[in-house]
TrEMBL record:
Residues 10-116 form the Coenzyme Q-binding protein COQ10 START domain. It comes from the Bacteria. This is SRPBCC family protein. It comes from Nocardiopsis sediminis. It holds the Pfam family Polyketide_cyc. InterPro entries: COQ10_START (IPR005031), ORF3 (IPR047137), START-like_dom_sf (IPR023393). PANTHER family: POLYKETIDE CYCLASE/DEHYDRASE AND LIPID TRANSPORT SUPERFAMILY PROTEIN, POLYKETIDE CYCLASE_DEHYDRASE AND LIPID TRANSPORT SUPERFAMILY PROTEIN.
Length: 143
């Protein structure tokens, strides 16, 4: 099991950051390992990411969604995989701290190797940095 927590400050209001984060269909814009994403309904997500060049599909269930504040999820099977939480906290009028927490429960030897805290933390940091770059370059304050 690995517990990872990473945070980043973005120069957009929290509601803007939350709204963009919750547009899962746009995640390929800032998550290069994401090769496919489907949202069959409001609480289920079907992901295909690449790990060491091979596709890895998995399903998530959104367990909590508070607009402008947080999104929590877990893998659909519940026994292996992961649970996660992302929160959005204002740091100013037009800035926000995004905190990403992930707990992983690897299944086999390959997953355990890929699940080492440094590997998963590196992925989480890359996702947040890419998200920051994406949101700050696309958002324009109202005039």
């Amino acid at each position: 099991m690995a517990d990872i927590t990473v945070a980043i400050d973005v120069e957009v209001p929290c509601r803007v950051a939350y709204d963009q984060w919750s547009r899962f269909e746009e995640w390929p814009d800032f998550m290069p390992d994401l090769k496919g994403l489907e949202r069959p309904n409001d609480v289920h997500l079907r992901w295909i990411i690449t790990v060491d060049g091979r596709p890895v599909p998995f399903d998530d269930v959104i367990t909590q969604q508070v607009p402008g504040d947080r999104i929590a999820w877990r893998t659909a099977d519940g026994d292996t995989g992961h649970t996660g939480l992302v929160t959005f906290r204002p740091t100013g009028e037009s800035s926000c701290r995004i905190t990403f927490q992930l707990t992983t429960f690897p299944e086999g030897a390959a997953e355990q190797f890929g699940d080492q805290p440094g590997v998963e933390k590196g992925r989480a940091v890359r996702i947040l940095r890419n998200f920051k770059k994406h949101i700050e370059s696309t958002w324009r304050p109202p005039v």
